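Lecture 7 notes: from sequence to structure.

We start with a single chain of 142 residues. Read the sequence below before looking at the structure.
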Amino acid sequence: MRLVQRYEVAGEAPPLELPLYEALVPAGFPSPADDYIDLKLDLNSYLVKRPCSTYYAKVSGDSMTGAGIFDGDLIVVDRSQFPAAGKIVVVALNGEITVKRIQYQQEKILLCPENEKYATIALDSHEGFEFYGVVIGIIRKL
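Now the structure, written as C-alpha cells:
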C-alpha cells in the first residue's frame, strides 16, 4: 500500500469546489426540473474532518472486497481515531502495511479480512504491530 500525502510541503492545497446537485439522482431517466446547481462541494472538506491527522493511501490487493474496498482504491485514513472493534484500520505488521477490520477477543487483537480467501490474523501481543489509522472513506475511479 502506497501512502499519499494529504498536503503539499508548502501548506494546504487550495479548495477545489465543484458543483453539487442537491436533488437525488435516480438510476433511471433524470428529471428536467433538476437542471440546476444548488451548492459547491470540495471533496477534501467533505471527506476530511481532521486535516492534520488524515492521509490517503492506495490499496493493493483484494482482501477487503467484502467491505467494498478494491485494488486501486484510495482510502481516507484518520490517525486520530481510536481503533474500536469493527472499524477498518491500517496497520503495520512486522513492517508490512495492511488494511483489515479490527476485532478484539480477550487478550488478542484480530485483523480480519473481508474476503474468504484470506485467514484472520490473530496477534497475542503488540510486538511487531503499529497502528496507522482508521479508514473513514473510500475514493474509487470507474
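Residues 95 and 128 are 7 Å apart (CA to CA). Keep this in mind for problem set 3.
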